[in-house]
Design brief:
Length: 179
């Protein structure tokens, strides 16, 4: 069960019951997010209104590990984090990165423009600044790439803002460490 505690008064209120995964706050504390393996979906709760939204419902591909054959609920492919101001949340599918609206009003947008799925790549955000709490949509993103069939790896550059496909920086039959 998940409780919110008012740090000034100590008052506690139960906001979620029976959640089987970790729940995290957005950087500015406006939302709680979690993955529900039973529902195979990501959810966000507006902390103020307590409104819960399935934020992955508009993504046309599974956001859970569909190859996981364990006798338990599947795990999420994960998330890249939040944009500044708690405006948007970034979710992974097997190949690409999706920008979702925590209010559920705007449709999800594939920020990697489907490149991962088209080329059988796994694209994942590489956070270069360990102190950064959120992603600036105007900044370049470094994406780690892994080709599922050939096992080649490398890096691409992309942005949250805009609609240009990710640009390949390097892709080779090698294993690269973290920059």
């Amino acid at each position: 069960d998940i409780y919110l505690v008012d740090v000034e008064t100590g008052e506690r209120s139960k906001v979620l019951e029976g959640v089987r995964s970790s729940v995290s706050f957005s950087p500015e504390g406006k939302y709680l997010t979690w993955f529900d393996g039973h529902e195979r979906a990501w959810f966000a709760m507006d902390v103020e209104s307590r409104r819960i939204v399935n934020i992955s419902s508009g993504i046309p591909h599974p956001v859970h590990d569909e190859l996981d054959d364990t006798p338990d609920e599947p795990r999420a492919y994960g998330s890249a984090g939040w944009t500044r101001g708690d405006e948007r949340f970034l979710i992974y599918d097997r190949h690409d990165i999706w920008l979702v609206d925590p209010t559920g009003r705007a449709a999800p947008r594939n920020i990697t423009e489907g490149l991962g799925r088209r080329e059988d790549l796994r694209l994942r955000y590489v956070a270069l600044d360990p102190e950064a709490r959120a992603i600036d949509p105007g900044d370049d993103l470094l994406l780690e790439a892994f080709h599922y069939r050939t096992k080649a790896s490398g890096f691409y550059r992309d942005r949250v803002a805009g609609s240009a496909p990710p640009r390949r920086l390097i892709m080779e039959d090698r294993s690269f460490g973290r920059p």
